[in-house]
Write a structure and sequence with these properties.
This protein is mainly alpha-helical and about 210 residues long. The protein has 2 domains: about 15-100, Rossmann fold (3-Layer(aba) Sandwich), CATH 3.40.50; about 120-205. The protein contains 9 helices and 5 strands. It has a 3-stranded parallel β-sheet, with helices on one face. It has a two-stranded antiparallel ribbon with strand order 1-2. Helix 1 (about 20-35) runs parallel beside helix 2 (about 50-60) and helix 6 (about 125-145) packs across helix 9. The two termini are about 35 Å apart. The relative contact order is 0.10.
Length: about 210
């Protein structure tokens, strides 16, 4: 969608699996364009009532604001207050949106059973055990992951997408206890995951 002409896609930051900062970016864009008289009409795709004040401010500068929307689905709707403030509300049907979105494929967090050499694991240094945990987690994750999820991890290397990293660390806490203050163990778990991932998915790059 970001490649569409005359469209600015604001993604914000992903923090703990949630986008943050999008409203602020949209507000800045809207008010800057309005003050500079760079636009006469703004087409806004959002459902968040937090942008109501930004809409009012833009309108006070002489800008028309058209609110775009998607067909309503259960548990999701645009703010009625935001709709009321905008100059026009246009709902675009599924046929319009279909080329730009694909269904999200949810995958449950894999259960990581103890390794076969459990006794040996407990005698090993804690960081080594954490690396082995990351390796086992990656092995199970790959056995259930969809191709687009594998591609997403490949694109983010040497980092790990938060959608994979967060549940992996939560699973590791079952074995190692709280990891918030244990950067050494978090790093070891991630190293185990990444090393195994590269060895299986990208063996030629090792």
């Amino acid at each position: 969608m970001g490649s569409l002409p005359r469209l600015k896609l604001r993604l914000g930051r992903v923090i703990q699996g949630q986008q943050k900062g999008v409203d602020t970016l949209i507000t800045l864009d809207l008010l800057t364009l309005a003050r500079e008289r760079a636009i006469a009409t703004a087409y806004l795709l959002t459902g968040d009532e937090d942008l109501r004040e930004a809409v009012l401010a833009a309108q006070s500068l002489g800008i028309q604001v058209v609110l775009l929307g998607t067909p309503p689905i259960e548990g999701s709707r645009q703010s009625f207050a935001l709709i009321d403030e905008c100059d026009e509300h246009i709902v675009l049907d599924e046929e319009f949106w279909e080329p730009y979105f694909s269904p999200v494929q949810h995958m449950p967090r894999p259960y990581v059973p103890p390794s076969d050499d459990d006794d040996e694991d407990w005698d090993a240094p804690e960081e080594e055990r954490a690396r082995r945990f990351g390796t086992r987690y990656c092995e199970l994750w790959l056995s259930e992951a969809y191709p687009d999820q594998v591609h997403q991890v490949t694109e983010r290397l040497p980092g790990i997408p938060v959608e994979v990293d967060a549940p992996m660390l939560r699973a590791a806490e079952v074995e190692f206890g709280p990891l918030r203050e244990r950067e050494d163990l978090r790093r070891a778990v991630r190293q185990g995951f990444s090393s195994y991932f590269v060895s299986v998915v990208l063996p030629d790059t090792e």
